[in-house]
Fold this protein.
Amino acid sequence: MSDAIAGPDGLLRCPWALSTPDYVTYHDEEWGRPVHGDDELFERLSLEAFQSGLSWITILRRRPGFRAAFDGFVIAKVAGFTDTDRERLLADTGIIRNRAKVDATIANARVLADWAPGELDELIWSHAPDRSARPAPKGLADVPAVTPESTALSKALKKRGLRFVGPTTAYALMQACGLVDDHLADCTARRG
């Protein structure tokens, strides 16, 4: 039996997607879709780190503020942030003003600025599991919080100097960026 629930339009969706219109849009149009590009993946990795300990809707609703505050998450720009920028971020009510997470985002950008173009994309996607070996989840209980692949990705990112990239954050990144498809088997957004 599937945990998928019919939305107002009658289409079956993952239950978490139906709590707000923001979630429905994010679920249907973005979550689980493949994301490529170093800056794009840096943004997702940073937002997943900011989400740690909070609900995703808090981050989703502040994403425009995050994008403005962090110069669109362009790695080269964030890597050049100064102490003045750091203080500006810590005073910005449009984002989550967590000192450790702000510092980690800037530090991560500085590390990534030294990588070759495409290197972050290649590293992250090299940890995508074989889709054919993983059955579509029927219920929420079938969706893990951590996998061997997310643990390996976390270790690889940490080894290269990145912060706030634990196995749970790495798995959330994998879900959000389409490395795994955790839409329930009966969900309208599942890619098949």
Notes: The CA atoms of residues 142 and 154 lie 22 Å apart. The longest helix spans residues 38-51.
